[in-house]
Amino acid sequence: KEIQAYKVKGLSTTQILVQNGLSPSSSEAKRMIKQGAVKINGNTIENPNEIFQDKYTIYQVGKRKFLKIIP
């Protein structure tokens, strides 16, 4: 299955997860981040308010949800 690609600028990790359907709500997204269920480019993230930077990024939520962010 091909990973969906989206253009995003200036959004926090939480906003990206919610707007792209990887999380049903921002509180659920923050909970998943705190539990270590969210990875960016293979690295577990800890800050739900981190702002997306201008680079190619793969978000992984759990084992099966993926999202590619392109600049």
Notes on the protein architecture:
By secondary structure, the protein is of the alpha+beta class. 23% of the residues lie in helices and 27% in strands. The chain contains two helices and five strands. The N and C termini lie far apart (22 Å). The mean pLDDT is 88.
Q: What would a concise description of this structure say?
A:
The chain has 71 residues and is of the alpha+beta class. It is 23% helix and 27% strand.
Helical content stands at: 10-25%
Radius of gyration: 11 Å
> How many strands in all?
5
Major sheet strand order: 1-5-4-2-3
**Main sheet, how many strands, which sense, barrel?**
5 strands, mixed
Separation of the first and last Cα atoms:
22 Å
Q: With helices defined by DSSP (H or I, 4 residues minimum), what is the helix count?
A: 2
What is the molecular shape? globular
Q: Specify the structural class.
A: alpha+beta
Secondary-structure element pattern, one letter each: EHHEEEE
What is the residue-averaged pLDDT? 88
Low-confidence segments, given as residue ranges, are none
Kindly list the characteristics that best describe this protein:
5 strands, 23% helix, single chain, 2 helices, 27% strand, alpha+beta, 71 residues
Would you spell out the secondary-structure blueprint of this structure?
Layout: E1 5-7, H1 13-19, H2 26-34, E2 38-40, E3 43-44, E4 57-61, E5 65-70
Parallel strand pairs: 1-5
Antiparallel strand pairs: 2-3, 2-4, 4-5
